[in-house]
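Project standup — Tuesday

K.O.: blocked on the structure for the chain from last sprint. Re-posting the sequence here as requested.
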Amino acid sequence: MKGGTARRSNWRCRTCSSDMAGVAIGLLILIFLAFMGWSVLWAAPVAAMAVALLNGADLLGAYAGAYMEGLSGFLKSYFPLFLLGAIFGKLMEATGMAGSIAANLSRLIGRKRAILAVVVSCACLTYGGVSLFVVVFAIYPIACGLFNEANIARKLMPAAISLGSYTFTMTALPGSPQIQNLIPMDYFHTTASAAPVLGVVASIIMAALGYWYLLRRQRQLAAAGEGFDGSPDDMENAGKPPSVWLSALPLAAVVFTLNVLHFHIITALLLGNVLILALNYKKYKDFIKIVNAGAAVSVVAVMNTSAAVGFGAVVQSVPAFSNFADALAALPGSPLVSLAVAVNLLAGATGSASGGLGIALAALGERYYAMAVQTGIPAAAFHRVASIACGGLDSLPHNGALLTLFAVTGTTHKSSYKDLAMTVMVSPFVALAVIIVLAGLGVC
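H.V.: unblocked you, prediction finished:
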């Protein structure tokens, strides 16, 4: 009888491994096609259908069901945000407001510290509660001005923006209002400022390592003769640029109404757009062209992201996926290590930090909270480890936020992904390892 049970268990393990191998193959297909320059709009469904086929699912059913539900669900929820965010960024750029802020930041921080100015700007907006997608649209024109002034290669722009937006302010800095820091609260009965010492230490490691790497790459590219490769559209500005105070007003209005008045993000962005138009009323003849250009950018960005989300939805629909999550929780060693591995792998499979974190904690949160009680490790440490862990493998090439970043900055996986991976994957891994050791020593 025991032998029969063991054989059935082994068969289930082999079946689960086979199903997850199908997921891995689909993910590799998507990564390969992305690096070859193929549009994710068709690469994502092809990869998703490979996952479905290798798991014995009906292809048409998987496409019309999980894939299209994931794609359309994201599009329904986030298209207004992408639309208004892209128009906001384009208006800031075309009216000269972004250029004015960039020029003043360059003078304040120093022309040679353009990368630092971009990182700090992104960090302030992200920690202020502005959506990561909106930060990309808002910062891009400012980053263009700063990189142009310092003659830094455009290929480093995604890495600089992501360092300030997708790392320490998203997952580690205590009190961050980003969803990746808020999800663990319900499962570990903690607050957004959980494990402040661990969070601050992780933030310093991520910021320092990422910035050191970007400065090193800047020097390498400069020595090779690579400078800013801008285009007329990036630098367009009719007439004298507005004052920096007026230029900063729309950005400040979005942050203030979102975080202090608690307006909905759509309302806050709409107000910011109206404010830009009002402050630049003399340029009203150009408004139609500018708004149309922003709307066009938003469609590309939101569709690329939605396609990647559709792929993640098919992965989540694989029958063995929940079994895979359970197997991760059973890994030997410290529960903090198994939690970090589980969240990282699930975030990588789905291409989403918040998605992977949500899936992991929905399936395993209660189990890990019980482990916290049993082991005496503070639940706050579990919160911080889970939050930081979701910001690692989520940044594989099919991540929707990265696809948006590449689309908006006019870069590609081939030109910019290596540098971006160093800032948003390697640095968080180092920080995660350090805080797990510290948590084991009782630091929280």
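K.O.: great, moving the ticket to review. Confidence is low (pLDDT under 50) at residues 1-13, 232-238. The longest helix spans residues 59-94.
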